[in-house]
Specification:
With 167 residues, the chain is of the alpha+beta class. It contains 2 helices and 10 strands, in the order ββββββαββββα. Strands 2, 4, 5, 6, 8, 9 and 10 form a 7-stranded mixed β-sheet that branches. Strands 1-3-7 form a 3-stranded antiparallel β-sheet. The termini are far apart. This is Ig-like domain-containing protein. InterPro entries: Ig-like_dom (IPR007110), Ig-like_dom_sf (IPR036179), Ig-like_fold (IPR013783), Ig/MHC_CS (IPR003006), Ig_sub (IPR003599), Ig_sub2 (IPR003598), Ig_V-set (IPR013106). It holds the Pfam family V-set.
Length: 167
C-alpha cells in the first residue's frame, strides 16, 4: 500500500484516572488520528498488558467518506465496562495498529488508571424539628400582662365615666 511507511498516527486516551465503586459503569475513550492511505486499522484494549477485549476493526475507506475523503481521519473507540468490580482495577491502554503489509502499531502513552472501591451504603438521617412548646413562665407573664392591661383600661374607663357623670 502506498504511503503506509509514512503512517502518521497519534493515539491518546481519556480520562487519565477514574475512581469509582463496585456496580458503576465506566467508559474509557481511545482517540486516534492518522494520515495515510491505509485501508484498515485495528484497536485493542489492554489491562496491565493483558488483552481485555477482541480487537475492533475500522474500515478507513468508510471513515474517509464521512470526512469528505480527507486523508486525515480521526476516530474514537470506547471501552465500556458495565458494573465494574474490584478485580477490574488496573491501568488500561489502547493499542492501534495495522498489520498489512507490515506491522505498525502505537500504544497510547498515557493509560487510564481505574480504581474500584467497595460499595459503602450511605445511611441518610432526616431530622424533623417542630416548634418548641411555649414555656409556662412566658405564658404566665404574657397572660398576666394582658389581664393587667384589661383591668387598667376598665379602671380608667370607670373613673372617666364617674367624673363626667358629676358634671
Amino acid at each position: 500500500m502506498v504511503g503506509f511507511n509514512n503512517l502518521n498516527l497519534t493515539v491518546w486516551q481519556s480520562p487519565k484516572r477514574i475512581n469509582t465503586i463496585e456496580g458503576q459503569s465506566v467508559n474509557i475513550n481511545c482517540s486516534f488520528t492518522f494520515n495515510s492511505t491505509t485501508e484498515l486499522l485495528k484497536v485493542k484494549w489492554l489491562k496491565n498488558n493483558t488483552e481485555v477485549d477482541k480487537p475492533v476493526h475500522y474500515n478507513i475507506s468508510a471513515l474517509r467518506s464521512q470526512n469528505f475523503n480527507s486523508r486525515t481521519v480521526s476516530q474514537t473507540s470506547v471501552l465500556r465496562l458495565p458494573s465494574v468490580q474490584l478485580k477490574d482495577s488496573g491501568t488500561y491502554y489502547c493499542k492501534v495498529w495495522h498489520d498489512v503489509p507490515v506491522l505498525r502499531e502505537k500504544i497510547s502513552e498515557q493509560g487510564t488508571e481505574l480504581r474500584v472501591g467497595k460499595f459503602k451504603p450511605v445511611v441518610n438521617f432526616t431530622i424533623v424539628t417542630s416548634p418548641a412548646p411555649a414555656k409556662p413562665f412566658a405564658v404566665t407573664v404574657m397572660g398576666a400582662s394582658a389581664l393587667g392591661l384589661v383591668l387598667m383600661t376598665t379602671c380608667i374607663t370607670a373613673v372617666l365615666c364617674i367624673t363626667y357623670k358629676r358634671e
